[in-house]
Structures are given as C-alpha cells and as structure tokens.
Specification:
The chain is an alpha/beta fold. It has a single domain, classed as P-loop containing nucleotide triphosphate hydrolases (Rossmann fold, 3-Layer(aba) Sandwich). The strands form two sheets. It has a four-stranded antiparallel beta sheet, with helices on one face. Helix 9 packs across helix 15. It is globular, with a radius of gyration of 20 Å. The structure holds adenosine-3'-5'-diphosphate (A3P). Adenosine-3'-5'-diphosphate (A3P) binds next to helix 3, helix 7 and helix 13. GO terms for molecular function: sulfotransferase activity. Keywords: Transferase. InterPro entries: P-loop_NTPase, Sulfotransferase_dom.
Length: 401
C-alpha cells in the first residue's frame, strides 16, 4: 500500500497532467521480455507481411504481433516487397503535390483534413470524408496513400497510371521513415533531401507526444483476445509499451522516425514543415496558418478560421458519424472492448479521444518513467547517428522530451 502511494505521488510532475487512473498503478514494463523472430538486423530486410513475429512475454503469458519487414521497417499493411520496390523506383511527383507524413497515430488524419480544406476552400459542402482517403467515386479529392494502394500484397486499389492521371493538386499520405519515403532514395539523408527537392513535393510532417501516440496505436492495433491471436485477455499496456519502445510495432521505432524527419525539416529552405499535434491543439489558427504559408497559399483570417472550425475534433467526429467506413465497426468494437473511450456511434478509431496528455489515464507512474528512459536513450542513439545533439520537443503541459 505504501509502495502504491509512493508510486502515485512520485508521478513525474513535468510530464503528467491530471487524470491518472489508479487501476493502472502496477503497470511495469520491466517484467516483459520482448522477442523478435527472426532477430531483426540493421540491414535492409524485405520480407512479406507476417514474416516477422514479435512478442512480449512475462514467462506466463505471451502477447504476439506480426509484421512484414519492407526496406527494414515493419509495414502497417499487407505489402508485397517487390511491388513496393517497383513503386519506389517508378513513382513520379509533381511540384503541385503535397504529402502529409507522420508516424502512425500522431494526427495524420487531422492534418490531411487541414490540407484538403486549405487547398479546396473551406466549404462545408466539400466535406472531405472523415478519414480523407482517396476514392474515385466517393472522395476524388481525398489523400492517396500510395504504399498500400499500389503495393498491397492482396490487391492494389490504384495503378501508377491512375495516380499519374489525377488532377493537381494531389495530396498524399505516408507513414514511411524519411529514408524509405517515396521519391527520396539516396545513399545519405542529404542525398535523399536533394532528391526530394527535385520532385518539388511539399511535405507536412506531424509529430505527437509519443505516449499519446503509443496509447492511440494501442487502441487501434494491439491484438484482440480470441483464438486468432491465441490470447485470453487484451494485451496490457506495459507489454504494449515494451514492444512499442523497441520499435516492434507498425512503422518501427517512433524515435528514429521523428528524429530523422525533424533533422530534414531543419535544413535551409526545407520542403518539409515539422508541426506537432500539441501546437495545433493549443493554437489551431496559428498551426493552420503555418501550414498554409508552407504550401504558399495566401489565405484570409476568415478562411483560416473556417478551416479551423471544419477540422476541429467535433466537426470531424460528426462527419465520421455520418459516413462510417469499412473497418470502423471493427475499430469501434475493439476500442469499446479495450475501454478506449471511443464514441461507439462515431465508430472511428481515427477519431477516438483527440486529447493531448491523455496517456496519463493509461500509464502507471513507473511505466511513464520507464517509457521516458527508453525514449531518451533511443533518442540519444538516433541523434548521434544523425550527428547532432538530441532534439527536444515541446509536447505541451510542460512536457519537453
Ligand atoms: P486518439 O486515439 O488519441 O484519440 P492518425 O490520424 O495519425 O491515425 O491519428 C489519430 C489520432 O488523432 C487519434 O488520437 C484521433 O482522435 C486524433 N485526431 C484526429 N482528428 C483530430 C482532430 N481534429 N483534433 C484532435 N485530434 C484528432
């Protein structure tokens, strides 16, 4: 009891807003051992989806996840590595293209909505579908996520010729780490940046407090109990964090992803704008203006305010309720099962809670400290690789990581 009280009161005051749920007090990442089969090496690996099995085990229970490794990163969708390589080698961009890049669950859908509204006029009638994905019939203005749309192992929903025929401005989405980003391929980050400059593509990269991103991905991706996954209960958050901080989740390690894209955004006249979820949350009008400026779009204060209104969490959740999409039912069921506080009617895990600092409801103070320590040490390694001091990101609530 005394230990519990100590743990609760020793919550890291700098990174811990209110809302801690005492039922999570015992979460401890150290009790989980993580395994990768086959062991992940640093060389670029190309294996089909499901070829890598990752798991967290405490000796009594084992929680598995599986991914394909394409270009050395765990692919979020079933991907055919050969198709992916072909896509990488042949895709052509235009200088009117805009890409929203991110590590998953950091506010991609939100920034897509902002970009689409900025480009096409903040007109409610435009109504970019709640999850903004391109669809020839339903949402021809939507974002194109080239990697799964073209390189899917099961079926491609778009050919490269169809992509080439889309009218400007095309909006793309990608979760690729910088060195695997389409159109960049170079032997160094500088060479990749030079390639990116040549394409004329403008990129908005959005980052988020990694703990909020980890929780958000947990509610979308951590496997459900049942025969298929051979687990009796949902994976506990500490097991998830053990995998997450190792990069054994969709799109690999958060830190490498963010640090590298951040470094590229710091180059002189970089085509990449780095924004955080938290800055958008704190001052949406300022964030939307920053994005408009990066895209070279002159917009009045009235236009900006209209974009802010139509990209608010409530406005987007209302859209999602009107237009549920395939997969939403599964996600809603999952989020409800796992107490993810999603509005079952809105049925979209892409619009689950929309808060900053809400990770605190799901972490114990100990888990929070362990997560911070893992973050800091992997950030130090990533920064050393990039040849600079570790960047510090202000994730709001006095949380600088
Ligand atoms: P939560 O799961 O914490 O609610 P992505 O689009 O990259 O998958 O990110 C999804 C996360 O962004 C979800 O976080 C979602 O609720 C949040 N989000 C989406 N639209 C938002 C908006 N307009 N305002 C704030 N958060 C938003």
């Amino acid at each position: 009891m005394l230990l519990l009280a100590w743990l609760i009161t020793s919550v890291d005051a700098t990174c811990n807003p209110e809302g801690f749920d005492p039922k999570n007090a015992n979460l401890d990442m150290a009790r989980w051992r993580v395994h990768a089969n086959p062991p992940v090496d640093t060389a670029r690996t190309n294996r089909a989806f499901g070829a890598y099995k990752f798991s967290a085990s405490d000796g009594r229970e084992t929680f598995p996840v599986a991914f394909g490794m394409v270009e050395g990163w765990p692919w979020p969708h079933r991907c055919d590595p050969a198709k992916y390589r072909r896509l990488h080698a042949t895709v052509k961009f235009r200088n009117t293209d805009v890409a929203v890049a991110s590590y998953p669950k950091t506010g991609t859908t939100w920034v897509e909505q902002i970009v689409l509204l900025l480009l096409h006029g903040a007109d409610a009638k435009l109504d970019p579908a709640s999850r903004n994905t391109y669809n020839a019939r339903r949402n021809p203005l939507g974002c194109v996520w080239l990697e799964p749309m073209v390189a899917s192992a099961r079926r491609a929903r778009m050919s490269l010729n169809q992509f080439a025929d889309l009218p400007a401005p095309r909006v793309l989405k990608s979760h690729a780490p910088f060195d695997a980003f389409l159109g960049t391929r170079g032997s160094t980050d500088n060479a990749s940046l030079a390639n990116l400059r040549q394409t004329g593509l403008k990129v908005i990269y959005v980052a988020r407090n990694p703990k909020d991103a980890a929780v958000s991905m947990y509610f979308q991706r951590a496997p459900l109990p049942g025969k298929r996954n051979n687990i009796k209960r949902r994976m506990p958050m500490d097991a998830w964090c053990a995998l997450y901080t190792k990069g054994y989740v969709s799109c690999g390690a958060f830190v490498d992803h963010v640090a590298r894209w951040h470094a590229v955004s710091k180059a002189v006249e970089s085509p990449v704008l780095f924004v955080t979820y938290e800055e958008l949350k704190q001052n949406p009008a300022k964030g939307v203006r920053k994005i408009a400026d990066h895209l070279g779009l002159e917009r009045s204060d009235e236009d900006i305010n209209a974009v802010v209104k139509l990209s608010s969490f409530d406005a987007m959740a209302a859209q999602a309720r009107k237009a549920p999409r395939p997969g939403d039912a599964r996600n809603a069921k999952y989020a409800t099962l796992t107490n993810g506080a999603v509005d079952a009617k809105s049925a979209s895990s892409h619009l689950r809670q929309g808060g900053a600092g809400t990770w605190v409801q799901h972490f114990s103070p100990l888990l929070s400290k362990q997560f911070d320590a893992a973050y800091q040490s992997t950030m130090a390694v990533a920064a050393a690789r990039l040849g600079g001091p570790p960047p510090a990101f202000d994730f709001g609530h006095g949380c600088v990581m």
